[in-house]
Design brief:
The complex is a heterodimer of chains A (119) and B (107).
Chain A: E1 3-8, E2 11-12, E3 18-25, E4 32-39, E5 46-51, E6 57-59, E7 67-72, E8 77-82, E9 91-99, E10 108-109, E11 113-117
Parallel strand pairs in A: 2-11
Antiparallel strand pairs in A: 1-3, 3-8, 4-5, 4-9, 5-6, 7-8, 9-10, 9-11
Chain B: E1 4-7, E2 10-13, E3 19-25, E4 33-38, E5 45-49, E6 53-54, E7 62-67, E8 70-75, E9 85-90, E10 97-98, E11 102-106
Parallel strand pairs in B: 2-11
Antiparallel strand pairs in B: 1-3, 3-8, 4-5, 4-9, 5-6, 7-8, 9-10, 9-11
The chains are: A mainly beta (119), B mainly beta (107).
């Protein structure tokens, strides 16, 4: 069973770059799309984007100019970078795994990383 | 982007009640919709995918259905552990989009 462990800096200043990583334990790295979702305090969920094991990406256009996702197959990890952050990027960021075979659903989730942007 | 309009935004109900939550898509999304449950301080959990398929391990009191661009999550008999926030997610078109959420509270 796949498990996801995520980590990264939780406090940023405006204009800095958010950097989060999700480590994959168990399962095959190539059998999933690797996805990032965020949730501002007290608000709903926002799909940030996804990356496959070969590095192919799909990003939310609302963030596309600032988002970069990457994979490191040697370490079974995938990462999110979001540049030029502002207070509006304050949120809990989740990583999730979507099986590549069959139907689409976010099957396994990380516990979430709370990121605060404040001067 | 496909807009998902979820209703109601909040709902009070009692243990044993039958509850329905609806998401309306702004265009045809076929059956490409899932339902997720989120409890405070936790990551969401998938309940239903492709509109009506029950995820393994999810109790059978949860069900999903589709009528055109309207999607419904039904909980047939509420249990204490079901009080949570529920979200729909369309995966038909990028960017994938969530409904605004329905907070299910104890009456």
């Amino acid at each position: 069973q796949v498990q996801l462990q995520q980590w990264g800096a939780g406090l940023l200043k405006p204009s800095e770059t958010l950097s989060l990583t999700c480590g994959v334990n168990g399962g095959s790295f190539s059998n999933f799309y690797w996805t990032w979702i965020r949730q501002p305090p007290g608000e709903g969920l926002e799909w940030i984007g996804e990356i496959n094991y070969r590095g192919g990406t799909n990003y939310n256009p609302s963030l596309k100019s600032r988002v970069t996702m990457s994979v490191d197959r040697s370490k079974n990890q995938f990462s999110l970078r979001l540049s030029s952050v502002t207070a509006a990027d304050t949120a809990v960021y989740f990583c999730a795994a979507v099986p590549t075979s069959g139907a689409y659903y976010m099957d396994v989730w990380g516990k979430g990383t709370s990121v605060t942007v404040s001067s | 982007a496909v807009q998902m309009t979820q209703s109601p935004s909040s709902l009070s109900a009692s243990v044993g009640d039958r509850v329905t939550i609806t998401c309306r898509a702004s265009q045809d999304i076929k059956n490409d919709l899932g339902w997720y449950q989120q409890k405070p301080g936790e990551a969401p959990k998938v309940l239903i995918y492709t509109a009506s398929s029950l995820q393994s391990g999810v109790p059978s009191r949860f069900s999903g259905s589709r009528s055109g661009t309207d999607f419904t999550l039904t909980i047939s008999s509420l249990q204490p552990e079901d009080f949570a926030t529920y979200y729909c997610l369309q995966d038909y078109n990028y960017p994938y989009t969530f409904g605004q959420g329905t907070k299910l509270e104890i009456k």
